[in-house]
Amino acid sequence: MKNMIEIFKNRNYSLLFLAAFTSQMGNIIGIAAFMLYLLDRFSEKPFYAAITELMYSLPTLAVFFLVGVLADRMDRQKIAANSDWICAFLSLGLLGAIYIDWMPLIFALLFLRSAVSKFFYPAQGAMIQGILSKDEYTVAAGLNQMTSSLFMLFGNALGIFIYWTIGLEGAIIVDFATYIISALLIRACVLSEAVRLPNGTHRWKEINIKFVAKDFKDGLLYILKSPLLVYLIIGFFVFGIVNGGMSVMPAYILKYKLAPDNYEEIMVLVGIVFGISVLLGSIIASILAKKLKLYQMVIIGVGVSGAFVIASGYSTSVFYYLAFSSLVGLSLPFVNIGIGGWLPRIVDPKMMGRVQGWITPVMMLSQSITLGVIAMTFQKIVTVEGIYVLVGGCLLFVSFFYMATLPKHSEEEEAPEALGKSASV
């Protein structure tokens, strides 16, 4: 706890942390409200809910080759702030599309806003790496996990509450406000040029196709030179499948199996239980991070959560589903804190944007494929239980894979210097 208090004495970190918090909050509230809107209006077409999540993940594949390059070559502070400004105004456009009730335009704007938002986190994360010490990375990862748990606890519930009280339009207005606040917080940071522009100044006219292709290739070569990074990215691909399934699984199992008549109210309860569990898991994982090796945290978290995800799919009542969901929530923070504290230690700050530029699309590719498959096969070929078996099985696979590969690379923490000398930056 003392370390967490100390890290907030860094003004720039506090501003960047709050900026990410507000930006993410708007995203979660808007998506939760929009999914409920579609499930209410098109209850006979559950694939619309999967399409909504797809509009959040699929855009990554359209911009992944630019995201990391720009985060490494251009002013990271301006990229993060401008991403927020543009998303805010696209939210206003989304309000207009909802008013005229044209679904193709609504999905198009969701797609575009999501694409723009993808530029925020690599730039914001790279700036945080530049202002913290190596010992503070795990603390920051723990704080990020606690923040995510708060979103799980209050995000969906708040989105549902706003939808119930002032409608979908109210949720979109909240999106708009949070993007504006996030942009202002980013602009308030006072950062050195080494943090904003670690690779020097570049002009926009220099960022041509040839330049982007070369930088993108350099990022891939940098990753391939580190077996540890390769193994982690293989895991991220599977995590994308997990994210795709878990984004719609609670709504599906409640609406179509456990609580068809009052699934919205139960979704609020699930969110509260899961959020509290993740928050407790974050605190426990942050404490144990000083006693366990990071790879041990990842392996334990992935394996335990996978087993209970499968069990939750076969729940025969809401009570059992809540119980299994809470156990999943307790174990997942071990994964996020382990990986979140590891990556900044093994990646050269000059290459962080390009490494993230590969990690994010790998996850979103598998997430998009998963959501597409669910949209086409749910209730036709795949059952609710089948989705849970798929997601839990993927987690168990990663646990065994990491058990076989990560321990022998556990000391690979001096890699940034070694790899940095051989990487083209």
From TrEMBL:
Transmembrane intervals = 12-35, 47-71, 228-254, 266-287, 294-314, 320-343, 355-375, 387-404
Instruction: Provide the membrane topology annotation.
Output: Multi-pass membrane protein
| Location in or out of the cell | Cell membrane
InterPro entries, sorted: MFS, MFS_trans_sf
Please verify whether the record's keywords include Cell membrane. Answer: yes
Name the major location.
Answer: membrane
From what superkingdom does this record's organism come? Answer: Bacteria
Keyword annotations for this protein, in alphabetical order, are:
Cell membrane, Membrane, Transmembrane, Transmembrane helix, Transport
This chain's protein is named MFS family permease
